Amino acid sequence: MPTDLKQLSARLGLSATTVSRALNGYDDVSAKTRERVEQMARELGYQPNRTARRLARGRADAVGLVYPLDAGDLGDPRFLEVIEGLSDRLEADDMDLLLASARERTELRTYQRLISGGRVDGVIVARTRVVDERIDYLQRVGVPLVAYGRTAQPDGFAWFDFDNEAGMVLAVQQMVALGHRRIGYLHAPLSLCFAAQRQAGFQRAMQAAGLAVDPALVVEGGLSHRTGHAAAQRLLAGPTRPSALIVDNNLCGMGAVRALLDAGVAIGRELSVIVYDGVPDDVLRAGMRIAAIGQPTAYRAGETMAEMLLALMRGEPLPDRHRLLQPVFEPGNSIGPPAAG
Amino acid sequence: MPTDLKQLSARLGLSATTVSRALNGYDDVSAKTRERVEQMARELGYQPNRTARRLARGRADAVGLVYPLDAGDLGDPRFLEVIEGLSDRLEADDMDLLLASARERTELRTYQRLISGGRVDGVIVARTRVVDERIDYLQRVGVPLVAYGRTAQPDGFAWFDFDNEAGMVLAVQQMVALGHRRIGYLHAPLSLCFAAQRQAGFQRAMQAAGLAVDPALVVEGGLSHRTGHAAAQRLLAGPTRPSALIVDNNLCGMGAVRALLDAGVAIGRELSVIVYDGVPDDVLRAGMRIAAIGQPTAYRAGETMAEMLLALMRGEPLPDRHRLLQPVFEPGNSIGPPAAG
DNA sequence: TTGAAAGCGCTAACAC
DNA sequence: GTGTTAGCGCTTTCAA
Predict the structure, then answer these.
(1) pLDDT over threshold 90, residue A7
(2) Which CATH number goes with the domain that contains B48?
(3) A2–B116 CB contact, under 8 Å
(4) Is B220 helix (H, G, I), strand (E, B) or coil?
């Protein structure tokens, strides 16, 4: 049995109240008493019982993270960095991080379980969708939330996101500057918000460049190696090959690059490639570096979201409820001018 | 405010006691009463407050998973599957999964926080070490635990593991059967239990085959792409190249394979390669499949460990406290007879 | 079969 | 400054 507050206060000849206050940093405790209390607490290795504290305070001191397995997030190393940043920052405030898995179909119910059971008092919503019932639900019940990504109506809640549209514009501009006109586009399901935004950027930049978007060159590539691989093959099999290809996510990008290599396509000469979020160098052919649209470290994203959520849970006003980070273009040797002809 | 037990019982004209019992499946409640209670609970969307229940029952209804960031687990897709299996199974028993990150140096303290604060009542210990103070600590304080991997003294606690030694013996036997005699070995830090076991298998199988282990061909390759890459380069630069190479983990294996490809080594002809746990096909050159020692799905491993831990926490005797799964050899075209000369 | 009462370990009004 | 008292919302003896 670990020492409890009663024992501790008995040993000190003080009331539990005083001890509690001393330990929780209230200022109506004499310096001397606090000193003694802290000393003794250390000596006995006293750790307040979390559950009791939670019940008394009416807070769960925990935040929930539901990861939709179907979405393939688990395979995304960037998302893992996000988790890392999240949990590190939460831990600093002595908050627990509850991880719940969910198939997309049961996801909402998972949130409900977490919320109405009082297991968490704040939530991180990952992989936002253009229309997102999870966020609607959380807002309706008034649970503090920070979304990792926006939705179609992004004003009512706090979020952290990268400027996906601007990022994709960068990608198109690179290709256009090199002289490409037939630009192919491989994208994740457009119900995902980031995919919709990136596609909007694609359309906008193409139009701005006076280029037509050839529907035959726009392919849904899913959100995994496998689907990306298959989609790239479909694209290659089409009547007119593009001279440039932009892939809107790294998972599918990896599969696509693989497919191109398999098909013997000379990346960067026959076909220029940019992958949003990039492809790790070490999975590629020697010396190859895929040009990318890069995002500032995912770890920081996690930290920042934790920070925002903590403030919300404390009821503090958030200086900026919306953080939109600008992606940057990261050069590579996977792009070049279109092949003659 | 969600409905609480008091409101629910008031609505029913029953005491909280009875309602609680009805809902928790006690048998001293009349069928009719139970019926009514369940009906009304559903109607009001009653969800018992977890914190209160926890305090009353003296259990946390949660298990902790501390992942050592330094170890590179986060990058290991297999470990993520394990988490998936774990959380799915725990959820079925209405248990929370607490995720805590930790640098190796602060790891023990993280466990202490979880335990003595009563945040969890059971723990999964990942990446066991040959001498593992975490397990010593947990046993000392009597917390139910299931280890993912063994230690040097594996008898006192429940664990789930693959037969690493046997797996590595398989790998060596394959190489030997093909006629290899100069077999190189790239391994993770030997303080990690799986690495030590696999190395033991390597030594044993080499000896059994009457082959000497050339110290120059045994290189520590770490537990990441980067270190594996570097280690393979070191090996290639050595005075006598091996004709076969075995890598004891997938992370480092990926980097090593990359390094070989970069160096223009004809894998499977100039140099045969087996990677423990395998390298995903889609990161390789077209048509290449790295021979591997494979382990039954990691998802099942997670599920099984959850199952074991749940039983332990319920105080049930565990039919088999130790689960040792046999790995299998998975063929590929990365191996062949040694090149002539 | 049901209810009253006590208590899980802590925090927070309120009084001294 | 410190102590008294009353909960937080549930479970669980113990009586009825």
Answers:
(1) yes
(2) 1.10.260.40
(3) yes
(4) strand
